[in-house]
Amino acid sequence: MRIPLEPVEAVSITTVMDNSSDMLLRDQGPARRGGPGPNVPPLPARFLESGAARDALLAEHGFSALLHIEKAGRSHQVLFDAGLTPNGVAENLRRLELSLQDVEAIVLSHGHMDHTTGMHGIVDALGTANLPVYLHPEFWNRRRIVIPGAEPRELATTSKQALLGAGFEVIEERQPSFLLDASLLITGEVDRTTGFEQGFPGHEAFHGGEWQPDPMILDDQAAIMNVRGRGLVVLTGCGHAGIVNIVRYAQKLTGVQEVYAVLGGFHLGGPLFEPIIPDTVAALQALRPEVVVPAHCTGWRAVHAIAAAMPEAFIPNSVGTRYEL
């Protein structure tokens, strides 16, 4: 199956929420570092001589990005994921002086709470939530993490009734789907083709009245854009499908082999995933992206390995960074 993803003139991706906030990072390549806008009021601070402090961006174990796409003289905006806390993403949007009023759609990469909970504050920021929300049918699964020697930990699940009740149009797709006049492609379920990306051991879903293994997390999906003359831009939430699987699937779907930028969570943190870091890094090198931004759940060992292996492509992420691609 090949899907003709139309080229766009430019893509801008702003990190609205991530695990890291670093005010000392400098602009680097396409990365423009940002913070609270000039019109954001100072905070009262009674222990400072001035009595006021500059506001700052929030970081949390969650992810959200605002996509701005330029095509044929028109601008489009999409919000990708919503972060971990009810108001974190909405607060960062306010502090960055970014409005949701021109957002045409919301994409939720998968059903884990660190990508969905911020819909609470997003509704308040929108006022009238009459937007389409794109997700996979498995998004609604009850899930838990089972680690040997520890009590199972159930993960919070998004309420479909609450989303519909807020006025969103929920669109569920297993297959790839186009947004914005064929200029943005959502992968749907990703083909699992590598031998080393085997999913999330200990991850379970509640099906048929019982807990069952769910290592593949089939609702994990990514966003793909094709920048004219540069190649594919691939944006992931957690990358549970495997970042190499995802990029290769993007190439397969679109027929475009050039990979310009890969950004988002690669889910390589912790002892369950660190053993596949060498294979992942080697495969990423073979894909030859110009820009690699490992964020969110990638994990510090993997981030350092990518930085060492791909120093010219690697860019550290931080809340408020805008990538002009």
Question: Can you walk me through this structure?
Answer:
- The chain is an alpha+beta fold.
- The chain has a single domain (10-41, 55-324), classed as Metallo-beta-lactamase, Chain A (4-Layer Sandwich).
- It is built from 6 helices and 20 strands.
- It has helices at 88-95, 119-126, 160-165, 243-254, 277-287, 300-309; strands spanning 10-17, 31-32, 43-44, 52-53, 64-71, 74-80, 103-107, 132-135, 143-145, 153-155, 169-172, 177-179, 184-186, 203-207, 210-213, 223-227, 231-236, 259-265, 291-295, 322-324.
- The protein has an 8-stranded mixed sheet. Strands 12-13-16-17-18-19 form a 6-stranded mixed sheet, covered by helices on one side.
- Strand 16 (223-227) and strand 17 (231-236) form a beta hairpin.
- Helix 1 packs across helix 2 and helix 4 runs parallel beside helix 5 (277-287).
- The two termini are 27 Å apart.
- The relative contact order is 0.18.
CATH fold-level assignment:
Metallo-beta-lactamase, Chain A
CATH class annotation: Alpha Beta
SS strand fraction:
25-35%
Fourth CATH level, the homologous superfamily: Ribonuclease Z/Hydroxyacylglutathione hydrolase-like
Ranges where pLDDT stays below 50 over 5 or more residues in a row are: none
Overall pLDDT confidence: 96
Element layout with pairings:
Layout: E1 10-17, E2 31-32, E3 43-44, E4 52-53, E5 64-71, E6 74-80, H1 88-95, E7 103-107, H2 119-126, E8 132-135, E9 143-145, E10 153-155, H3 160-165, E11 169-172, E12 177-179, E13 184-186, E14 203-207, E15 210-213, E16 223-227, E17 231-236, H4 243-254, E18 259-265, H5 277-287, E19 291-295, H6 300-309, E20 322-324
Parallel strand pairs: 6-7, 7-8, 8-11, 17-18, 18-19
Antiparallel strand pairs: 1-5, 1-20, 2-20, 3-4, 5-6, 9-10, 9-14, 12-13, 13-16, 14-15, 16-17
